[in-house]
C-alpha cells in the first residue's frame, strides 16, 4: 500500500520514498540540511579521497600517452572520477538551489488538499524510489564487475594450473610512486574504496535528478487531477462568468506555487492566461 503523508515536516525525507536520496547526499556532503561545517568536512573528505586517484591517473596518462591501448584502459576510470568530481563541485556551488528544491518539495506536501492528491504524489514518489533502487543496483553491478575483471586472469590461471600469479593490472592504473607489484593488494583495496566513492557521488546526483523529475511529474498529475475536478466545482459558478474565472485562477495559482517556488502574483496571470484557463475549464461556465 502507498503511504500518504498528512503531517509533513522534515521527517518526510526519512520516509521510504526519499531516505535513499538523503543517505547518498549525506555521504557526499551535499545534503542541504547539514550544518555548514559538517557539510564542508564531508565534502572535503570524499573529494580528497577521490583526488588520491584522479591526480595520479592524470599523471600516468601523460606518461603513457603514446601507448593507446593503455590510455584507453585508464580513460574509463579517469572519466568516471572526473564526472564524479565535476558533479560534486557543481553540488557545492549550487547547494542553495538544492535547498530551495527540497524546501519546495516539503512545502508542496503541505499544500495537498485531499487524500486523492496525497495518493498521487506518493505514487510518483514511490516511482522515484523504484528508479533509484534500480539505478543503484545497476551501478553497483557495473563496479563489482569491473573490480572482479582485474582479478579474472589470475583466477582463471589458478583454476587451471593451481598456481596463483599476481594480476597484471590493478583497478586503477596510476602513478603512485610505489612498486605496483610489491604493493598490489594495498593498492587494490585503495582502488576499491575510491571506486565506491566515485559511484556514491554519481549515484547521489543521478538519483537526486530522478527524485526531482518524479516530484515535478507528481505536481503536474495533481494539477491535472484538480482540473478534472473543475466540472463539479465550477458548476455552482456557471451563472457568473467573473466568479467562474476567479475560481479557475485560484486553482491555477495554488498549484503553480509548487512549480515556481513562490506564490504566483496576480500580475502573473494576464489576459492570455485567463483565456487559456477558460479553454481548459470549458467555455460553458462563462456563457
From TrEMBL:
Query: What are the UniProt keywords, alphabetically?
Result: Cell membrane, Membrane, Olfaction, Receptor, Sensory transduction, Transducer, Transmembrane, Transmembrane helix
UniProt organism field:
Trichogramma kaykai
Superkingdom, taxonomy of origin: Eukaryota
Protein name in the entry: Odorant receptor
* Gene Ontology terms: cellular component: plasma membrane
Concerning Pfam families, the annotation shows: 7tm_6
UniProt topology in membrane: Multi-pass membrane protein
Q: Which GO terms describe its biological process?
A: sensory perception of smell; signal transduction
Compartments where found = Cell membrane
Spans traversing the lipid bilayer: 41-65, 72-93, 137-160, 181-202, 208-225
Amino acid at each position: 500500500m502507498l503511504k500518504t503523508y498528512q503531517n509533513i515536516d522534515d521527517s518526510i525525507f526519512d520516509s521510504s520514498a526519499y531516505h535513499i536520496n538523503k543517505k547518498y547526499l549525506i555521504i557526499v556532503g551535499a545534503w542541504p540540511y547539514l550544518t555548514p561545517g559538517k557539510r564542508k568536512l564531508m565534502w572535503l573528505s570524499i573529494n580528497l579521497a577521490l583526488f588520491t586517484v584522479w591526480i595520479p591517473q592524470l599523471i600516468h596518462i601523460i606518461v603513457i600517452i603514446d601507448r593507446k591501448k593503455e590510455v584507453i584502459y585508464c580513460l574509463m576510470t579517469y572519466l568516471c572520477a572526473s564526472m564524479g568530481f565535476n558533479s560534486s563541485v557543481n553540488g557545492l556551488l549550487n547547494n542553495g538551489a538544492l535547498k530551495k528544491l527540497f524546501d519546495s518539495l516539503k512545502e508542496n506536501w503541505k499544500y495537498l488538499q485531499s487524500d486523492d492528491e496525497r495518493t498521487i504524489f506518493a505514487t510518483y514518489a514511490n516511482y522515484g524510489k523504484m528508479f533509484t533502487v534500480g539505478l543503484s543496483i545497476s551501478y553497483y553491478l557495473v563496479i563489482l564487475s569491473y573490480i572482479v575483471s582485474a582479478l579474472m586472469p589470475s583466477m582463471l590461471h589458478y583454476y587451471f594450473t593451481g598456481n596463483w600469479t599476481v594480476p597484471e593490472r590493478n583497478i586503477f592504473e596510476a602513478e603512485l610512486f610505489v612498486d605496483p607489484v610489491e604493493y598490489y593488494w594495498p593498492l587494490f583495496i585503495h582502488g576499491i574504496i575510491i571506486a565506491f566513492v566515485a559511484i556514491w557521488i554519481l549515484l547521489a546526483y543521478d538519483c537526486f535528478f530522478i527524485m526531482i523529475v518524479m516530484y515535478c511529474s507528481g505536481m503536474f498529475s495533481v494539477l491535472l487531477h484538480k482540473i478534472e475536478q473543475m466540472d463539479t466545482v465550477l458548476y455552482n459558478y456557471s451563472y457568473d462568468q467573473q466568479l467562474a474565472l476567479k475560481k479557475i485562477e485560484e486553482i491555477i495559482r495554488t498549484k503553480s506555487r509548487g512549480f515556481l517556488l513562490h506564490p504566483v502574483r496576480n500580475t502573473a496571470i494576464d489576459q492570455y492566461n485567463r483565456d487559456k484557463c477558460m479553454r481548459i475549464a470549458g467555455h460553458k461556465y462563462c456563457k
